[in-house]
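Researcher: Good morning. I'm working through a list of sequences from a screen, and I'd like to move beyond sequence-only analysis. For each chain I'm collecting a predicted structure so we can compare shapes side by side. This is the next one on the list. No need for commentary yet; just the structure.
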Amino acid sequence: MKRWVRMHYVDNVGEATAVWGTWEYSADTPLAVSMTCPVPDRGGWSTWVFARSLLVTGTYVASGVGNVRVWPVVDEDAEAVCIALSNGTEHAMFRVERAAVLAWTADILRWVPPDVESRLLDIDGCIERILKAREG
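Model: Good morning. Structure tokens for this chain:
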């Protein structure tokens, strides 16, 4: 499932720039979501992959530590969700309308409910592929 989402990239001085990016979810990787979007002050596009549970939980309460943090924001203008991402050397923060996050997470939770995720994982197949890659 892929959806274009309007976000605001927030630079290191707090200025926001509207950007469009894609959010993707697949039943093949039921625990993860990916977010691909432009990073205006660096140029180019970046993709981040992180736990879908961080996005779902972060819509309601602060979630995550380290490289991915998600939290709700309510101010006089609107309700939003902030997503802070880091890979150790690069950092990015995005602000997304909460209604857009709620709609998307509702769709992916309907598609693959939380209690079904583990049944979709092929752990044995994953281990087999890793071992074959090491051999060859």
